[in-house]
Amino acid sequence: MPVAPGFALWGPFCVTKEDGRVCIIRDVLTSPLYWQYAVLLNKFSYFPELENNLHLKGYYSIFQENLTYAPGSLKCYISRTPGRFPAQKHQTGKLKEYYLLNAASLLSVLALEIKDGERVLDMCAAPGGKSIAMLQCAWPGHLHCNEYDSQRSRRLKQTLESFIPEPLMNSIALSELDGRQIGDLHPELYDKVLLDSPCSNDRSWLFSSDIQQATLRLIQRKELPAVQVELLRSAIKALRPGGSVVYSTCTLSKAENSDVISHILNSCSNILPEDISELADAVSDEFTVVAGVQPHELLVLPTKEKAWGPMYLAKLKKM
Prior knowledge:
By secondary structure, the protein is α+β, with helices and mostly antiparallel strands. The protein has helices at 25-30, 48-56, 106-112, 129-137, 150-163, 166-169, 179-185, 202-205, 211-238, 258-267, 277-282; strands at 7-9, 14-17, 22-24, 38-41, 60-62, 76-78, 98-101, 119-122, 142-146, 172-175, 190-196, 239-249, 271-273, 288-289, 297-301, 311-318. Helix 3 (106-112) crosses helix 4 (129-137), helix 7 (179-185) runs parallel beside helix 9 (211-238) and helix 9 (211-238) runs parallel beside helix 10. The model is unreliable at 18-22 (pLDDT under 50).
């Protein structure tokens, strides 16, 4: 797999620069010294003083200058220095001003290009960061946030209530459905679908210290691609003709990324790849973007200078 100019990929967790210096993705993912957190402002509650404070601490806004279709209401700040802005605690009846997240996770939301009034499905929505980002971008006519796991679903509900005004919550539907069933339950209902799929999650994978846990994860890794294909087929069923789905994972596994997309493109005659190369070009200064992937794909590698990711996404359109 070719990577960003000046790099070569050696295995799933190692990148070597052409000048001989070695950058191990494993080191970035496991060492807090390199971890970075973006600050996503909540347009429903933040005050100008927050932006002033971010500027004073060396944070700067991304997406707005280089990406022509990035909505002005989506304000995300990052710093080139590793570290974490103080988190805010949940307070009943009071909205939080910002959400801390991996900046690469916003790329799938930007790729979806949500417009006001559209019906949108976030199929695997917990913990809720991408749903919050969607609502910073536009006012969907209906937003369906689904999370199959009951514990994660409770966290999703609390997250949304911490960021979204109560009147707007009335236009959000929460459910705990098996995502593989949604296409049959709600056929051709949605204009846009985000499938941030369950995956082997390279960050948590590297923290598997228990032998039993590691063995279980190996079994799950083998089973995941089949589940991911089922989920994506369901997402496509739920799309209206002309609608788009963005598929994303936080793994570098080819079997869970491009192989899943290729399987769908080869077996679904009504699905076409949708070019997102403009997005890849626009964010290449702030993210280590893999070169040479297909125009409908984007892959971000975490490096010591830019610790965002890993994040894979692909965009498909239903004819």
